[in-house]
Design goal:
Helices cover about 0% and strands about 45% of the residues. With about 280 residues, it is an all-beta fold. It has one domain. The strands form 5 sheets. It has a 5-stranded antiparallel sheet with strand order 10-3-14-15-17, with no helix packed on it. A hairpin with a 6-residue loop joins β8 and β9. It is elongated and about 70 Å long. It starts with a strand and ends in a 22-residue tail after the last strand. About 35% of the residues are buried.
Amino acid sequence: MKIITFFILFLSLAIIFYCGQITSDLENSDFMFSVKVKSPDNRPLEGLTISAWNLIRFPGEKAGLIPHGLKAATTTIMFDLFDDAQVDLTIKDLKNEIIQNIYEQTLLFPGKYSVAPSFQSRDGLVIYKCLLEVRDVKQHYLFFKDSTYMVLYQPDPTIAFLGLTNYKGEYQTDDRYKFPSTLANLPELVYTDISSPEPLGEITISDQIVIIVWDPQRFVGQDYQRKIQPGKNHFELTWDPQTSRSLSATSILPEMVRKKQIFFHENQQITQWKLYQNFPNPFN
């Protein structure tokens, strides 16, 4: 009997996932996010960086900017194979577009596999779907297929940013996927503990957002919390460099996808596949 274990793990704090298919009815019409930044004396400010994302809430907690004191972590996808198999491991976004093909009709042998991909994302909060398909090597019939939804959370504005203000002090985008709370029919985001796949509740993406306006030359910025809705959103912000906080520059995002295989001991057995460690990942 061919048995597979498939789960996603984070080295530190980790992930959000949900088994199922991406819903097709995610978009709402006429979405717009726009900000206008001015100085205390009402002058438009050009060339400031705009970072913004939804806050997230754990069961029994308030929505926060950096839940649980998130630190740098690595996204690690783990699965077990107990026979030779042809494997596809694909990462998609909520538009069902492929972000990465980690394995593509790849012949893998029995063992425990660990894959640490880098998504090179500039999003503060983004939802990805991880899809694993396993086929028989000889006849290529599908004997395992499952998916998880994962939320990657990046609270560092020097990595997660939208763009720069123009000469009018304005920035705008109509990309609703930057703010998942504005999407219809989001998948359920199940929260589990570290050692069990049993659900402890759901993680909520709040309609409260944080906007960080910062100077890319001096690395100083200010935070603003606002509420975002599915329609048009316009925010006028006053930015004062004298009251801005310091931002620490972050090192360049990792560029490689690391893959590792650990062979099983002769008598090692697992009776069913499970999904583990559903925590938000602070590094995407």
